[in-house]
């Protein structure tokens, strides 16, 4: 319970200070280190670094591991620290705002963070609500205020909140002194639910029901209202929005899992080599080395030295096998992929803005999508609703040869305005009163708020539902104008005559009932002026499957309306059924008492209200139905056809009725003409599990040869070969999912299908469908625009939200947000494909260059008696993975295996993308290991045989190992850079500078380092740079390492080309004059694009 104006009684509640930070000044370092070392690989590198601190174990200077480890950890910690500081600044700005707060009748300006539960807060127009408050009074006499909830759900339309009857009429003085009690639930995250009641004073027994309509939520803004008083009930992080704060779900991409498996393989190889070298080293030393070189190992240390020190030295020597910089490298690459998406001007739509990547870590999954799950309304369509046609008492309007719209139907307009003078048209037998009554019900049964602004002679209507806006606007356009609303009084203008109604109750829409209703009482004049009330009526509108069976009698009209509903659905129009019910005063009073009991209940209020609503929503008199047009977005059919050619299956998950869903699916190419002929409809109405199981089995027997069996490898072929389309409604889906065997058979049927359309499905069912496909190992992408799509967006591997008229809920929950469905093709086929191609290469190259160096160290052990001595010096090992090889591979993010226009010309190339298959990175991993081992063997053997005698003959003396180290590392630097150049498809000026510039930088920095006596390379580089043998040797060694690779590359490209290689050969990459990236990098990017000669685009040959 919350006691107003009573600090002592509310002392157990928290203050209003909000905190969104992860760390404090004291906890930052230990907590951040704990988070970083919770990862296995980081813990592994820490162990290696600690072992290197022991001089008897480490073969190299500890700086070789500690330097990159500290750099990487510092970068991660700095990023976390900066992000957390930004959160702190945002919190501080909110916490220090000043509000007028009243305690025990005394008002003062205090900081937002000092507001306590039970305080009475005054909020002015345009100011953010500081905490969750029960509205007590507003500047409007009826206690109404308007709030904007864009921070919660992204909707910019205003929402109405009303003060409870106990306090709405109080004066300012009385509100400030109010000592009532709010009986409310414990803090929870249910934003749209507030089952509470307000007691006028402690133990008074006088209650007023409270719901979300009386609650002002923290984060919303007061609009169109001068001021409002509220009683603070939830504060700080216990507000509704605070309780909804969650860490975003961690999504691991398919390629991340492959990299983890590759790391484990290397770790196993590393341990095997450690033990093998330890055993071999022990045998060698015992049999030969010990007898010839007794100084190598002290006799007293032989036992523990052989069995402990040597293996540990080998482990430290080979620690570079797992690249320490891989995670940071991939993080930087992925961040840039996200920036490329944000900067893409081809996904920019004027005032709606461009694409936005909220998740910077899953771009590669965009290049591996198998299934796309899409909503319909607002995703495939514009979500701009227009009332086009209607059926009233079994007669269609707006649907003749002469007119295709209600506004051009002269018969309808004549009935509405002239009383319906008779003509030969059989529709003129229709009573004018029934037509007027139909549109009057449309104007009354809604939650629309008419604004003071006017357009075309009637107010501009604002509401959370585009359907309701279309219905009210459509009624206004034919002459029935919803002209004003003040608290619960609604005014309707009809041909210059004003009708007044009082809205007694609003039975809000729910996904279970699939309808909404209002109970109104008509007055002959203004009820505030003591005018006599007339009849009481319940008006309802909703889906046909939730309305028609509640209509009593009228069989002929029911049949005609059902027929018209099907006609509208075949035209792809959204339909709603409109009906009413006359109530006597006694019926209404009895129901109102039942409603009051349910509405003031603190337990199971929602269920009791549903039962209460259902008890009165029956025995309707059918008025007719509406048909609303929602046009397809531009480019939707072409985008779907492109995805299908790329081997991606698309499913449509919608709440619309089955016939409408089929029509829209057909018009947007989701269901092909051949698919209409092979269409399976699974409707669950009055069907048992056994009957649905039988239907599914029959379809499987008939189409079992039409497509391949389910599985990842056969999925691509199924997309092209199958013509089967499956359409299922929500009731059938619910029945199927209750039976495990039936669900498995259904999913098998879906695997065979060309496309699947699920209609009349709930948000939970959408999420279950996505989960079923995701659990089979397919990469799923969900795209939607409304709050009902959030669950499936979060459940998918990749979630895409469309910023539309239904708000930003979907966009905020998504990994990526776009403004048009057609932008999805660039997001998936261009950015996704390039990201996967680039990351696969970056990961493989990082493993390759680390294994290359480690294998040189292993081969060198043969020469040093398996003592664990390092050939490469500290400078080389410290700078190898950071200073000399990081930048060139980072700039591989600019690589393109083919021009993006080729992807649209030949979409199947999406399936042949490098890294696309389930284990492609692992399949390519072993050839890269073999490449590293070969080059390491060539480098080591060449240097040993070519320079072994040369060192002594040139008087290098004790610096012989340093000389060998310098020569080997120089060859390594040349080989790794030229290997990267070989694998690069698209050289920009930046790539040239990185690759060739790094080589030049290495020679320059080595020369400078050779001047420092303390680094062990003193004058070594100076001497070898002056020998022509050195330059000849590194040249011939590099050629020996790379020549087989270049020959293999040439033969493969010429005689066994991959699809992308063939397309690259057939096309000449041209440079666009306009930049594809957004400012500020657009000029820089276009400057560094390669300058190719512009030539006409070739026609691509058909490839196998």
UniProtKB/TrEMBL annotation:
GO cellular component annotations of the record: plasma membrane
Location relative to the cell: Endomembrane system; Membrane
Key words, A-Z: ATP-binding, Magnesium, Membrane, Metal-binding, Nucleotide-binding, Translocase, Transmembrane, Transmembrane helix
Keyword Lipid biosynthesis: no
P-type ATPase N-terminal domain: residues covered: 9-66
Membrane topology field: Multi-pass membrane protein
Catalytic activity annotation: a 1,2-diacyl-sn-glycero-3-phosphoethanolamine(out) + ATP + H2O = a 1,2-diacyl-sn-glycero-3-phosphoethanolamine(in) + ADP + phosphate + H(+); ATP + H2O + phospholipidSide 1 = ADP + phosphate + phospholipidSide 2
Major site of localization recorded for this protein: membrane
Active site: 375
GO biological process entries: phospholipid translocation
Annotated EC: 7.6.2.1
Residues binding Mg(2+), per UniProt: 375, 377, 785, 789
Span of domain P-type ATPase C-terminal: 811-1058
MF (Gene Ontology): ATP binding; ATP hydrolysis activity; ATPase-coupled intramembrane lipid transporter activity; magnesium ion binding
Cofactor: Mg(2+)
Residue stretches spanning the membrane: 264-284, 304-326, 842-863, 925-948, 963-982, 994-1016, 1028-1047
Enzyme class: translocase
Domain spans labelled P-type ATPase A: 99-161
Annotated residues for binding of ATP: 375-377, 468, 509, 541, 574, 654-656, 760, 766, 788-789
Family listed: Belongs to the cation transport ATPase (P-type) (TC 3.A.3) family. Type IV subfamily.
Annotated NCBIfam families: ATPase-Plipid (TIGR01652), ATPase_P-type (TIGR01494)
Protein name in the entry: Phospholipid-transporting ATPase
């Amino acid at each position: 319970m919350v006691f107003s104006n009573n600090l002592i009684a509310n002392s157990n509640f928290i203050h209003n200070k909000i905190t969104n930070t992860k760390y404090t000044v004291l906890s930052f370092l230990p907590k951040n280190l704990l988070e970083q070392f919770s990862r296995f690989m980081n813990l592994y590198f820490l162990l290696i670094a600690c072992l290197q601190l022991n001089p008897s174990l480490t073969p190299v200077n500890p700086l070789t591991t500690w330097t990159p480890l500290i750099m990487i950890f510092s970068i991660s910690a700095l990023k976390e620290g900066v992000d957390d500081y930004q959160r702190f600044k945002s919190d501080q700005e909110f916490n220090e705002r000043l509000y007028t707060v009243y305690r025990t009748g005394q008002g003062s300006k205090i900081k937002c963070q000092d507001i306590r539960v039970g305080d009475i807060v005054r909020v002015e127009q345009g100011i953010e609500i500081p905490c969750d408050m029960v509205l007590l009074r507003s500047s409007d006499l009826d206690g109404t205020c308007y709030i904007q909830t864009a921070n919660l759900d992204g909707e910019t339309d205003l929402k109405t909140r009303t003060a409870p009857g106990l306090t709405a009429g109080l004066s300012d003085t009385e509100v400030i002194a109010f000592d009532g009690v709010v009986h409310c639930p414990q803090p929870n995250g249910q934003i749209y639910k507030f089952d509470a009641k307000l007691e006028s004073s402690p133990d008074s027994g006088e209650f007023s029901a409270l719901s979300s309509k009386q609650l002002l939520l923290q984060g919303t803004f007061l609009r169109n209202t001068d001021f409002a008083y509220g009683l603070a009930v939830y504060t700080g992080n216990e507000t509704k929005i605070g309780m909804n704060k969650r860490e975003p779900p961690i999504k691991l991409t398919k390629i991340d899992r492959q990299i983890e498996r590759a790391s484990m393989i290397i770790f196993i190889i590393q341990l095997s080599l450690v033990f093998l070298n330890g055993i071999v080293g022990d045998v060698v030393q015992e049999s030969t080395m010990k007898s010839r070189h007794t100084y190598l190992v002290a006799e007293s240390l032989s036992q523990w030295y052989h069995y402990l020190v040597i293996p540990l030295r080998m482990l430290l020597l080979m620690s570079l096998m797992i690249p320490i910089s891989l995670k940071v490298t991939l993080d930087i690459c992925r961040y840039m992929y996200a920036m490329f998406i944000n900067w893409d001007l081809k996904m920019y739509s004027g005032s709606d803005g461009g694409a936005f990547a909220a998740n910077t870590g899953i771009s590669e999954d965009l290049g591996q999508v198998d299934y796309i799950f899409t909503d319909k309304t607002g995703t495939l369509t514009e979500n701009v609703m227009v009332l086009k046609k209607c059926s009233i008492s079994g007669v269609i309007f707006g649907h003749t040869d002469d007119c295709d719209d209600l506004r051009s139907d002269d018969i309808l307009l004549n009935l509405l305005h002239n009383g319906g003078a008779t003509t030969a048209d059989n529709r003129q037998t229709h009573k004018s009163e029934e037509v007027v009554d139909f549109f009057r019900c449309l104007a009354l049964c809604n939650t629309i708020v008419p604004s003071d602004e006017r357009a075309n002679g009637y107010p501009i209507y604002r509401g959370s539902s585009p359907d309701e806006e279309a219905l009210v606007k459509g009624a206004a356009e034919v002459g029935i104008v919803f002209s004003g609303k003040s608290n619960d009084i609604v005014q309707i203008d009809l041909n210059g005559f004003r009708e007044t109604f009082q809205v007694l109750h609003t039975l809000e829409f729910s996904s279970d009932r699939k309808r909404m209703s209002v109970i109104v009482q008509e007055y002959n004049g203004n009820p505030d002026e003591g005018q006599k009330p007339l009849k009481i009526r319940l008006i309802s509108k909703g889906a046909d499957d939730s309305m028609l069976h509640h209509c009593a009698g009228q069989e002929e009209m029911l049949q005609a309306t059902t027929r018209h509903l099907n006609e509208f659905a075949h035209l792809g129009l959204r339909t709603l059924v409109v009906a009413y019910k006359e109530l006597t005063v006694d019926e209404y009073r009895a129901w109102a008492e039942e409603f009051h009991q349910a509405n003031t209940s603190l337990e199971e209020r929602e269920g009791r209200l549903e039962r209460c609503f259902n008890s009165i929503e029956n025995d309707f008199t059918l008025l007719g139905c509406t048909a609303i047009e929602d046009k397809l977005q531009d480019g939707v059919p072409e985008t779907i056809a492109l995805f299908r050619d790329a081997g991606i299956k698309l499913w449509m998950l919608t709440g619309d009725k089955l016939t409408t869903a089929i029509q829209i699916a057909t018009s947007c190419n989701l269901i092909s003409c051949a698919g209409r002929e092979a269409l399976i409809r699974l409707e669950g109405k009055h069907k048992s599990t056994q009957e649905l199981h039988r239907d599914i089995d029959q379809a499987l027997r008939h189409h079992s040869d039409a497509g391949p069996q389910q599985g990842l490898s056969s999925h691509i072929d199924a997309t092209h070969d199958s013509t089967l389309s499956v359409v299922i409604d929500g009731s059938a889906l619910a029945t199927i999912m209750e039976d495990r065997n039936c669900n498995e058979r259904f999913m098998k049927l879906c695997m065979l299908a060309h496309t699947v359309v699920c209609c009349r499905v709930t948000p939970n069912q959408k999420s279950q469908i996505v989960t079923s496909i995701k659990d089979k190992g397919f990469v799923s992408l969900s795209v939607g625009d409304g709050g009902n799509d959030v669950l499936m967006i979060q459940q998918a591997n990749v979630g895409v939200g469309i910023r539309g008229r239904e708000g930003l809920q979907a966009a905020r929950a998504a990994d990526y947000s776009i403004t048009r469905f057609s932008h999805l093709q660039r997001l998936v086929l261009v950015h996704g494909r390039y990201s996967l191609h680039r990351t696969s290469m970056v990961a493989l190259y990082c493993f390759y260059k680390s294994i290359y160096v480690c294998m040189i160290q292993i081969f060198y052990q043969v020469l040093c008696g398996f003592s664990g001595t390092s050939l490469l010096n500290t400078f080389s090992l410290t700078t190898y993975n950071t200073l000399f090889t990081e930048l060139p591979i980072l700039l591989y993010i600019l690589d393109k295996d083919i021009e993006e226009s080729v992807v649209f010309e030949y979409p199947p190339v999406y399936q042949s993308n490098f890294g696309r298959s389930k284990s492609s990175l692992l399949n390519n991993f072993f050839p890269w290991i073999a490449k590293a081992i070969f080059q390491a063997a060539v480098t080591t053997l060449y240097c040993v045989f070519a320079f072994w005698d040369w060192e002594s003959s040139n008087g290098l003396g004790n610096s012989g190992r340093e000389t060998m180290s310098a020569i080997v590392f120089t060859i390594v630097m040349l080989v790794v850079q030229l290997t990267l150049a070989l694998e690069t498809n698209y050289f920009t000026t930046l790539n040239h500078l990185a690759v060739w510039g790094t080589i030049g930088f290495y020679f320059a920095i080595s020369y400078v380092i050779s001047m420092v006596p303390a680094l062990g390379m003193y004058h070594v580089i100076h001497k070898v740079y002056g020998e022509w043998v050195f330059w000849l040797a590194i040249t011939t060694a590099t050629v020996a390492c790379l020549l087989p690779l270049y020959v293999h590359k040439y033969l493969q490209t010429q005689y066994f080309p991959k699809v992308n290689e063939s397309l690259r050969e057939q096309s000449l990459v041209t440079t666009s004059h306009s930049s594809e990236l957004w400012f500020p990098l657009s000029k820089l990017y276009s400057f560094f694009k390669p300058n190719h000669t512009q030539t006409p685009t070739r026609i691509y040959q058909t490839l196998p």
